[in-house]
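Annotated sample (chain length 103).
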Amino acid sequence: MNFIGTLDELYHSTAFLDLFFDVLAPVTVAAHAKDVTVADRLVLHIDETVPGRGRLDLAHFLQRFEAACPEGWVLIEHLRTADIPEARDAMLRAAEGAGLAWR
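Output written by the structure step:
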């Protein structure tokens, strides 16, 4: 989410993730589980949101992360305590959809 800066990247997150991991996979050691959305305000705002509420292809993110860093950690962060179960469930569904199992 931190690197998405345009609507094209946001609405084509799978292609963006491929570019991102093609460049950064060799130095990846962990990842933050986040999601991204466009805020409905006077000017464009690309905002972080609870995983599962946004537009990021979470399953593809997890597949690419697993390939880049199979022993790495995916951390949920920047959320209200009440939102953590929803984020966890979204990440578990994404992992299942990607054919991955948490270790």
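Annotation: The two ends are 24 Å apart (CA to CA).
Annotation: The first helix runs from residue 7 to 11.
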